[in-house]
Design brief:
The structure holds 2 protein chains of 2 kinds. By secondary structure, chain A is mostly beta strands. In chain A, 0% of the residues lie in helices and 54% in strands. Chain A contains no helices and 11 strands. Chain B is built from no helices and 11 strands. In chain B, strands 2, 4, 5, 6, 9, 10 and 11 form a 7-stranded mixed β-sheet that branches. A 4-stranded antiparallel β-sheet of chain B has the order 1-3-8-7, with no helix packed on it. The termini of chain B are far apart. The chains are: A mainly beta, B mainly beta.
Amino acid sequence: AQSVTQLGSHVSVSEGALVLLRCNYSSSVPPYLFWYVQYPNQGLQLLLKYTTGATLVKGINGFEAEFKKSETSFHLTKPSAHMSDAAEYFCVVGGGYQKVTFGTGTKLQVIP
Amino acid sequence: DADVTQTPRNRITKTGKRIMLECSQTKGHDRMYWYRQDPGLGLRLIYYSFDVKDINKGEISDGYSVSRQAQAKFSLSLESAIPNQTALYFCATRTSGDNNEQFFGPGTRLTVL
């Protein structure tokens, strides 16, 4: 069985501030972890994905995520928020023949 | 041109009507998926297909059916639409390989009155 929990359905940050979106997972096998972003009125696109053995994963648009096995977490961060980062972000666990499970999403608002 | 396309992009229909949503891809991927998105619930898997002859139910398949007409085409049908099937529907594809990402279409917004 696997599951994913995103803490906070809405997060607001000021432009230029740190972005931190939280994701915790559970998986009975080594997990495959992804972050996707959905801009308004668009489909989802990959932001980054976890590669076995890595602890810090870099993605597009300055985002990165840290894999912490001991905490079963895969939090997404960006040092300085930009207005164009306003979107909904989904943490996803699974892949291959594993069931793919999406988190419920976190909407990021960036305040000028 | 987009790699994953969905038609129609928007559809309004009435309760009891049969609806088909279509998905086509030019990525050459074996695996195709149908999801629905509802506010606050994320994306939930309706059906998935690993190849033309391999179709599987997802977590919320009741009230839906699918057809994989070819490697590139995967259609979702609502045999008798009901209002709680009002949602945003996404098709996705991915190649085989455990750590490969999915590629999503632009979505179909379906409203059932």
